[in-house]
Amino acid sequence: MNDNISGWNEWSVAFEQWNDVSISELHGLMTGLMTACYAPDEQGWATVLEELSFAPLPEPALTLLTEEAEDTVFQLKDKDDAYAYTPLVPDDEHDLYERVMALKQWANGFMTGFGISDCRLTAEENEMLSDLAKIGAIRLAEDEDYEGGEESYLYIYEFARMVPVSFATRKRKSVKELALIAGLPIDAKTTQERQAEGALLKPIPPVVDVMNQHNPS
């Protein structure tokens, strides 16, 4: 899929003046959140991004993100339609290094977006996120050949693409219900306190701190 069809060029233009994270990472964050939530309006997205300590989006970028989220939720709600989902990464006219780094960033964004949804995971989903975390942990110098080349890239791309497809039909909630937005009761126990009491009933997905992902290497 070329950059015009995938939306890469449109996103690049809309987010030209905003560089808190890459467009691939933001697209991954949006996708991860949309596997668990209904698409919010522009104000809802502005609130989510503010709580994640991002700078405000330019109006065209905020509108594009909002529309893309609506399309993504619509696509992922149907298992058959979900198979057509594609991460936002550059096409094969770009250097392999650039594509690998974009997919790495998308993976990290997805884990952040899904992580803040605080959804329960099946054993299979937890394993998929663990494998996705390995993509997010790829380290590659710009002048270094990616091991396995194009064939390896296509393999990890297809795996990453199938993660939101596999998560597609779960029950969704409003972003207003997220602890990130709604806040926690003043007497809420920390994770460490709950662990100490043996009350942690579900595994915590591998969430990558969005603010530590500015360095693509």
Describe this structure in words.
- The protein is mostly helical and 217 residues long.
- The protein has a single domain, classed as YgfB uncharacterised protein family PF03695 (Four Helix Bundle (Hemerythrin (Met), subunit A), Up-down Bundle), CATH 1.20.120.740.
- The protein contains 11 helices and no strands.
- It is globular and about 45 Å long.
- The C terminus is likely disordered.
Major sheet attributes = none
Low-confidence stretches: 184-195, 199-217
How many strand segments?
A: 0
CATH topology: Four Helix Bundle (Hemerythrin (Met), subunit A)
Radius of gyration: 17 Å
Give the helix/strand class: mainly alpha
Helical residue percent band: 40-55%
Whole-number count of domains: 1
CATH architecture: Up-down Bundle
Number of helices: 11
Protein name: UPF0149 family protein
InterPro entries: YgfB-like, YgfB-like_sf
Organism: Psychrobacter coccoides
Family: Belongs to the UPF0149 family.
Please describe the topology of this protein.
Elements: H1 3-6, H2 8-14, H3 23-34, H4 42-51, H5 59-77, H6 79-82, H7 96-115, H8 123-136, H9 149-166, H10 179-182, H11 191-196
Helix pairs in contact: 3-5, 3-7, 7-8, 7-9, 8-9
